[in-house]
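Action item from last week, closing it out:
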Amino acid sequence: MEFLAADALKGRGSGTRDELLAALYIASQLRQSGLQPAADKGGFVEEVALTKRKFAVAPQLQIGTPGEHEPLSWKHGTDMLALHIGRGLVQGPLQKMKPDSGTRVLQDGFVLLDTGTETTGASRELAEKISAQGAGVVMIPSDPGVEESWKELGQRLFEENVEPADTRGEPASKANILVLRRAAFERLRQMPDGTAMKLIAVEEIPHRAKTYNVVGRIEGTDSHAAILFSAHLDHLGAASLVGTNFYSGADDDASGVTAVLELARFFASGPRPKRTLLFALFGGGELDNAGAKKFAGSPPLPPTDIVADLDFEMIGRKNPDLPGDTLMLDDWSRSNLGSALV
């Protein structure tokens, strides 16, 4: 953990040289422990495609058709923030709905998603699902935390941003997600469904980039059952708001990587296990889990053979709400693993 969080790696920013150095170091540790390589091309390290994007001009949201009623034009950074731009030019009708309404999403519609008191983060997850159903743009309300950081969040769009890419090097997500100030959201909610809307966003030419997964294995005697141990190796990288100019990421998630490496060393030094053991350290964890998604799409074993994944996230400090020496298991309800461990 000391090496991964060292100043020399500058926070292991996703898609950077520093993240690659971390991946190569982790690969060397798995190799020294005696593991077999299990990445996609026969080595320990596999590449995951990313794209670097930057917007020079603030995206605009145009509302209404001239002649019908007074048109509005809202800019990124004022009445709205562009959380994600997948397509730069979209036109369609306003469609107001709630997440649980069961309403069919209009193709290329501008969905005003009333998520109530949900946080912006939770609302974004819902917006991604609505976008996948064919919406052209999904608009969600801001929460108090976003309102307080409005200026800082707005500036991020004009900096170079890295995100997962498809096979052509283009952004993997085509979703257009906007967060509206509460006053703007309420104003739009008063307008009738079908109001003409247009999103205009022009970006600079994107550049291809890469993140990296590191994968090793210990072959078990039962070739049709495997357990996966995982963590993400990247962090936030450079940060102008702190004195060291970067976030070191000791807890998030050098601590988890260290746990996986220690488990690999422990199991490799003992008797051959019954189940095959996979050890995967994912890149792009701070980029919508880009590395983990790539692994899930093309794992080294059939997905049905991987019976459990123990993922270690931020275990470097105690949770004040839990007794000492206690680990917290998230997503208890999403599998039967929790009850099996009790």
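Closing note: The longest helix spans residues 250-268.
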